[in-house]
């Protein structure tokens, strides 16, 4: 049975409603002191107990909604429905109600039907746009780094692009400067140490690969000619025939001078980049692989090593090196007759090369030397421009002065050689 208890203190009233010994709501409280609580200890205990319980249920309900939102972003509507129903039982909200209605009517995640999964309900709107994702195994949640719905949508947009121009958001007639501007903007936005949305790592690598290919005139020409025919196998193998010669992380460091820490990135000898953001499920699957499966996976690599070794045995070593190489026997320094380019040869070089054959060797030396200078000049310019951009972006005058003083020795040497060739 319900009862009404009224307590009057100094003409100010508190009215409490009790039902079956449980406080439902405090409708009005006009006391400016704690005297009314001490006047009604039973009411005080029940009000405090109810408030704590309601706060606990509210927090748990919000946690369930976050897990449901994460499930929706992973295309798991059944799991999302389960946690939304639990949230409604704990603490009913309009947000959970709307999400449940959308799932019941369409059977699809709300973001595919024009709704926003980041939530616009009263309990979530004042907490900002950032959402912390919670992954759980067997009902237990695991904390993850936060990301916004805008970041998640941007990652999906990049991964849905069909070619490199769409990834960078430029036209096919874009100039080199347009490509640089687009890359700088996207690289800062999608770097894995700044964007923690699922798929951000793949999007960052796709952006770096797109710029590295399109900024190379020869690769861009080939891509424009064959790109649409070579980019269809699977989503995870898009543009495999036009992979860049430089890893996305190295490219980023060249532009921005190592603006983000790279402790989660491992670059191997072949230039490929491996990020340390693996989820627990992938690690468990890798641990279940047996010795036989590992041997089968390594078989192509072993065959490649054997074939490479045989090829090296059959191919004649070049007669020169641009640097001192004791292992190859290139220990004697010489200079080309025309450009005075230094190179190193073996003991019998003078006996084996003379006249036209010597001129051919020196021509090859100069071509290799100029090619190396061009590559190094490009890297030096990119690094300097990247530091200048970072300095302007962050308003760092000291960094700007350091970038201004940074030299480009390869470019200077290349200019000197160009003067000799033109003369």
Automatic annotation (TrEMBL):
> Which one GO biological process term can you cite for this protein?
cellular response to misfolded protein
Would you name any one GO CC term?
Answer: endoplasmic reticulum membrane
One term of GO molecular function: Hsp70 protein binding
Asked if the keyword Membrane belongs to this entry, the reply reads yes
Q: Which UniProt keywords apply?
A: Chaperone, Endoplasmic reticulum, Membrane, Transmembrane, Transmembrane helix
Residue ranges annotated as transmembrane are 292-315
Q: Record's InterPro entries? A: DnaJ_domain (IPR001623), DnaJ_domain_CS (IPR018253), DnaJ_subfamily_B/C (IPR051100), DUF1977_DnaJ-like (IPR015399), J_dom_sf (IPR036869)
Task: Please give the chief subcellular localization of this protein.
Answer: endoplasmic reticulum
Tell me the segments the record calls region Disordered: 104-146
Please indicate if the UniProt record lists Endoplasmic reticulum as a keyword. yes
Intracellular or extracellular location(s): Endoplasmic reticulum membrane
Q: Which SMART domains match?
A: DnaJ
Membrane disposition: Single-pass membrane protein
Q: Where is the J domain?
A: 163-227
Please provide an example of a Pfam family that matches this protein in its UniProt record: DnaJ
Q: What is this protein called?
A: DnaJ heat shock protein family (Hsp40) member B12a
- Its gene name is dnajb12a
């Amino acid at each position: 049975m319900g009862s009404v208890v009224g307590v009057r203190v100094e003409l100010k009233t508190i009215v409490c409603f009790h039902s079956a010994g449980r406080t439902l709501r405090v409708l009005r409280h006009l006391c400016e002191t704690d005297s009314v609580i001490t006047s009604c200890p039973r009411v005080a205990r029940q009000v405090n107990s109810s408030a704590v319980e309601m706060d606990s249920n509210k927090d748990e309900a919000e946690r369930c909604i976050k897990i449901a939102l994460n499930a929706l972003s992973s295309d798991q509507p059944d799991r999302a429905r389960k946690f939304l129903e639990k949230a409604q039982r704990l603490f009913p909200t309009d947000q959970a109600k709307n999400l449940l209605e959308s799932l019941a009517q369409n059977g699809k995640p709300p973001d595919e039907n024009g709704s926003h999964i980041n939530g616009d309900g009263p309990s979530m709107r004042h907490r900002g746009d950032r959402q912390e994702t919670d992954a759980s195994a067997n009902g237990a949640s695991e904390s993850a780094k936060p990301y916004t719905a805008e970041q998640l949508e941007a990652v999906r947009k990049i991964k849905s692009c069909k070619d490199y121009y769409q990834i960078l958001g430029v036209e096919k007639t874009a100039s080199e400067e347009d490509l640089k501007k687009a890359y700088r903007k996207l690289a800062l936005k999608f770097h894995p140490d700044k964007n923690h949305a699922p798929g951000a790592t793949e999007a960052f690598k796709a952006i770096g690969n797109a710029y590295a290919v399109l900024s190379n005139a020869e690769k861009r020409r080939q891509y424009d000619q064959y790109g649409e025919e070579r980019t269809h196998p699977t989503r995870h193998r898009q543009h495999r025939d036009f992979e860049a010669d430089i890893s996305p992380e190295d490219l980023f460091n060249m532009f921005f001078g190592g603006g983000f820490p790279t402790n989660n990135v491992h670059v191997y000898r072949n230039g490929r980049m491996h990020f340390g953001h693996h989820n627990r499920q992938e690690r468990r699957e890798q641990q279940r692989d047996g010795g036989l499966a590992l041997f089968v996976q390594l078989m192509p690599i072993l065959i490649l090593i054997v074939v490479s070794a045989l090829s090296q045995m059959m191919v004649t070593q070049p007669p020169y090196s641009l640097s001192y190489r004791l292992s190859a026997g290139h220990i004697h320094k010489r200079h080309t007759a025309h450009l005075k380019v230094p190179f190193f040869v073996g003991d019998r070089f003078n006996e084996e090369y003379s006249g036209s054959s010597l001129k051919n060797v020196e021509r090859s030396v100069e071509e290799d030397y100029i090619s190396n200078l061009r590559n190094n000049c490009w890297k030096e310019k990119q690094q300097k421009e990247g530091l200048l951009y970072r300095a302007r972006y962050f308003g760092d005058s000291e960094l700007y002065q350091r970038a201004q003083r940074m030299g480009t020795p390869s470019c200077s040497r290349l200019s000197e050689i160009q003067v000799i060739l033109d003369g």
